[in-house]
Design brief:
The chain is mostly helical and 225 residues long. The protein has helices at 5-25, 29-53, 58-84, 100-114, 127-143, 151-167, 186-202, 204-223; strands spanning 121-123, 171-173.
Amino acid sequence: MKKHIPNTITCCNLISGCIATYWAFVGVTYLALLFIVIGAVFDFFDGMMARLLHVSSPIGKELDSLADDITFGFAPSAIVFSYLCTFHIHLPIVPFLAFIMAAFSALRLAKFNLDERQAMGFIGLPTPANALFWGALIVGLQEKAVYFDGMEWCILVGMFISCYLLIAEIPMFALKFKTWGWKGNEIKYIFILSCIPLLLLLGVTGLAAIIAWYVILSVATHKTT
């Protein structure tokens, strides 16, 4: 019985992604973001349960990637798609470009499954971080009614940059600790402490700022090592 617990949690992640996608398509982006966050919680606990119960399996690994591409690939793409549809764009195909992000997310997940270098860190932007960035950014922009000429093209350019970051050979730190001391964990602690004021000052948009700060810290650390 216990061998089915992690896969059940993974399926909850997938279902959360499906619900997030529905809310994205009907334009209720804050609920779409909420269910992406719920999916991220399930994604965290499925791997933990598999390790605790010693029931890790190849099928669980594949199922996890499929669920992640729905929740952290397709759902955020749907959020960007719906947002782009609110602009008066002369080329009807433009909003559909948002789904390129789902394809790059799938490629990122496939690479992660085969890459043995990512035990204590990541190579490229993790899909949950990318999904949270776009969900929080779009929700924040809508809440603050931020619109300006050419904004839709800025969104597309940003999306293509994030697609590159998903598969880029750029080491990015993970919040995994071998020890709890300051030495060797400086970047992680700086990041965690800086998240609090960003959330307090910016609200939902602060989540997008946190992901951007994470990327900047990772790139800066990589260049100095």
